[in-house]
Write a structure and sequence with these properties.
By secondary structure, the chain is an alpha+beta fold. The chain has one domain: Peptide Methionine Sulfoxide Reductase, Chain A. The protein contains 5 helices and 8 strands; from the N terminus they run E-H-E-H-E-H-E-E-E-H-E-E-H. The strands form 2 sheets. Strands 7-6-1-3-2-8 form a 6-stranded mixed beta sheet, with helices on one face. Strand 6, helix 4 and strand 7 form a beta-alpha-beta unit. Helix 3 packs across helix 4. The longest helix has 18 residues. The model has no long low-confidence stretch (mean pLDDT 96).
């Protein structure tokens, strides 16, 4: 039995990225939160203002015997737009940046390899995804956790953004889905 690992990824609105990664086999937990800023214990309103330096991100706990880190990173790169600097769609600001955060389970080499794979598969495009050093993780408020499964399916923003991401996931990574 392998030991679970964690990856912290930022790809825009955490409601939207959380919904994608909850679908993957081998993922036992996805927590929305804030990372990469310079304010201790930030709250949603502060992070949304773009003044704290934090990114909305997700911390994914996964079993590498079921889902390899490289596959997890490939799903990340495929289900958001890594070519948009400090934005995803209508969400604009550094809090919505595309970033891979290093930790004990996710190294510089892993992150660079994922970016190289994406760039190789998308000639003429260039990912602006940053690779950021370890930073303090702050869980988001409880009402942000598992948002898609609750309030999100009644939220017009989520209904416009999340289903296309889930469709990309099903098309490109069907064999990696729970029950797939």
């Amino acid at each position: 039995m392998s030991e679970n690992k964690q990856a912290i990824l930022a790809g825009g609105c955490f409601w939207c990225t959380e919904a994608v990664f909850r679908q993957l086999a081998g993922v036992s937990e996805v927590e929305s939160g804030y990372i990469g800023g310079d304010v201790a214990d930030p709250i949603y309103k502060q992070v949304c203002s773009g003044t704290t330096g934090h990114a909305e991100a997700i911390r994914i706990t996964f079993d590498p015997a079921v889902l390899e880190l490289a596959d997890l990173l490939d799903v990340f790169m495929a289900t958001h737009d890594p070519t948009q600097l400090n934005r995803q769609g209508n969400d604009v600001g550094t809090q919505y940046r595309s970033a891979i955060f290093l930790n004990d389970d996710l190294t510089q080499e892993d992150a660079e390899a994922a970016l190289a794979r994406w760039n190789d598969e998308h000639p003429g495009q260039s990912a602006v995804t940053t690779i950021e050093g370890p930073s303090t993780w702050y869980p988001a408020e409880d009402y942000h956790q598992e948002y898609w499964e609750g309030e999100g399916q009644r939220n017009p923003y989520c209904m416009a953004v999340i289903p296309p991401k889930l469709e990309k996931l099903r098309r490109g990574f069907k064999e990696k889905l729970k029950g797939g």
